[in-house]
Design goal:
The protein has 233 residues and is an alpha+beta fold. Helix content is 19%, strand content 38%. InterPro entries: LolA/LolB/LppX (IPR029046), LppX/LprAFG (IPR009830). It holds the Pfam family LppX_LprAFG. It is found in: Cell envelope.
Length: 233
């Protein structure tokens, strides 16, 4: 049962638990920010409020460099606030890449790739390590983590054809613990917030701990239904 649990942490936790990562040094709106742009103290709460209304999203995760104990190398899929999800992931186990498919529906997570067939894992069992429904939970999910962040607005960039504010921020470890079990310290990175709609479409953060690598998460297809087919087991 250990491999499925590792998978759940790596994909569903890193996938949108990572959405809570951003970083500077927690100094609020430092002088290094662009004074001609909205302050991070305005942008981050606006993004938090917007993300609390999101019912579903597609995600695309990539990593670079040494990510330490974090086994995920890439993942792509979609998840909604009921815990329904589907996608694919590449993990590294004992130096070897493992390709996985996953489906979550009605209290179960199904994983294919560990043994050559689908495995059915109760969500209640997985939730002891991570609850995927927390990702979009207004009280303890992405919005809650964003609302506790402090940062600096660095500039504007075009992402997927739309303008975004680029904010370096520090996310509070206590807030992150509600989304990512076991996190005890602040996490640092950068978040891209839509100028027109306050949606978070990209996050990049340095992996906490011994790893020196980074994780980048892109979001799209907000509020589109996540339709899955439950595998036969």
């Amino acid at each position: 049962m250990r491999p499925p649990r590792t998978f759940i942490i790596a994909v569903l936790l890193a996938a949108l638990a990572s959405v809570s990562a951003c970083g500077d040094d927690g100094d609020g709106n430092a002088a290094a920010g662009d004074p001609n742009l909205p302050a991070a103290s305005t942008l981050l709460p606006a993004a938090a409020a917007k993300m609390r209304t999101i019912t579903s999203a597609a995600f695309d995760i990539t990593t670079e460099g040494d990510t330490g104990a974090l086994p995920i190398k890439s993942a792509k899929g979609a998840i909604d606030n009921t815990g329904t999800a589907q996608g694919t992931a590449t993990l590294e186990q004992v130096g070897m890449p493992i390709e996985l498919q996953f489906v979550a529906k009605d209290g179960f997570i199904y994983v294919n790739g560990l043994t050559g067939g689908w495995q059915k894992i109760p969500l209640a069992q997985a939730a002891a390590l991570y609850d995927p429904t927390a990702i979009l939970d207004p009280a303890k999910g992405i919005g809650a983590v964003l609302s506790s962040a402090q940062g600096t607005t660095k500039g504007k960039e075009t992402l997927d054809g739309a303008e975004h504010y680029v904010v370096d921020a520090t996310f509070n470890g206590g807030a992150m613990a509600g989304l990512v079990p076991g996190v005890s310290g602040d996490v640092q990175g950068t978040v891209w917030i839509g100028v027109a709609d306050s949606l978070v479409r990209q996050l990049r953060f340095v992996v906490p701990g011994d790893g020196k690598g980074t994780v980048t998460i892109k979001f799209s297809d907000f509020d589109k239904p996540v339709d899955v087919t439950v595998p036969a087991v």
